[in-house]
From TrEMBL:
Pfam families: Npa1 (PF11707). One of its GO terms (cellular component) is nucleolus. Residues 13-22 have a biased composition (Polar residues). Residues 95-227 form the URB1 N-terminal domain. It comes from Callosobruchus maculatus. This is URB1 N-terminal domain-containing protein.
Length: 260
């Protein structure tokens, strides 16, 4: 018996058996802010948070998904509270997403600044123990980076927050030594710590800068490695030094290649 070949609709391509081609043939799933907020209360919150993070990273020019989220009633506090409803969620994931949102608010969505500052105070009031743990020897490199991203975004958002961070977060000498250690890694923990210190220069708020300088070993911890500063961090230094406006500085802090 002759085996008949399966018919396919005219003008349609036969489905490929190659998994890679099948994936390419699938429609791209766009971020839906309303659906995302609903899913934050479901058992799949880890997956939707990871999808949100990927959406942010895949839109380097506009970050429309962050704006969509904010315009549909989303807040940083809502994101942070997912950690309270599900203890299995990694704080590093949530902290990194919140950092992205804060930087976006700072750069181009000032109407959400008050609620964002409130969320930052929520971090300092409810998660400072987690923050301190993520900066010490018991943490992993990705955890330290995520935590420093969040703290950098908070410092850039408000001079008052910058002062509060120096008061509440435990930057003792052992932690500073760990965070400034040369590893030879591209986009290292040290690089993120340098950006954190640089964020204090965005507004040049004297009380915050004065408190920073009083922190023993903070500034001197990075002096020895200034010749090895990555180009993206050096651009931020020169932007501040040359007196550019705050929005241009925020653009440097929003460099997703350096923060992601």
């Amino acid at each position: 018996m002759v085996e008949m070949e399966q018919d396919y609709p005219i003008n349609n391509k036969r489905p490929s058996s190659n998994p890679e081609i099948q994936n390419e043939q699938k429609k791209v799933k766009h971020f839906n802010a309303k659906e995302f907020r609903k899913q934050l209360n479901s058992s799949s919150k880890l997956q939707v948070l990871q999808d949100f993070q990927n959406s942010i990273k895949s839109e380097p020019s506009k970050r429309d998904c962050i704006v969509d989220y904010l315009q549909n009633g989303g807040t940083c506090i809502e994101l942070l509270q997912t950690l309270e409803f599900d203890s299995t969620l990694p704080p590093s994931l949530v902290f990194e997403i919140v950092a992205y949102v804060l930087l976006k608010v700072n750069a181009s969505c000032p109407q959400y600044q008050n609620s964002s500052i409130e969320a930052c105070r929520y971090v300092l009031n409810n998660y400072v123990t987690v923050v301190n743990k993520m900066l010490n020897l018991s943490s992993t490199t990705p955890e330290r980076k995520a935590c420093l991203k969040l703290l950098t975004a908070m410092v850039a958002l408000s001079p008052a927050l910058a002062k509060d961070i120096l008061v509440h977060v435990n930057f003792h000498s052992t932690n500073v030594e760990l965070l400034t250690k040369h590893t030879g890694e591209k986009d290292s923990v040290r690089d993120h710590f340098v950006r954190f210190l640089t964020a204090f220069l965005v507004d040049g708020h004297y009380p915050a800068l004065s408190m920073l300088l009083e922190k023993k070993g903070f500034i001197t911890s990075i002096i020895g490695g200034l010749q090895a500063i990555p180009a993206n961090s050096f651009n931020l230094y020169t932007t501040i030094h040359d007196g550019f406006n705050s929005w241009e500085i925020y653009d440097h802090l929003l460099s997703w290649n350096s923060l992601c």
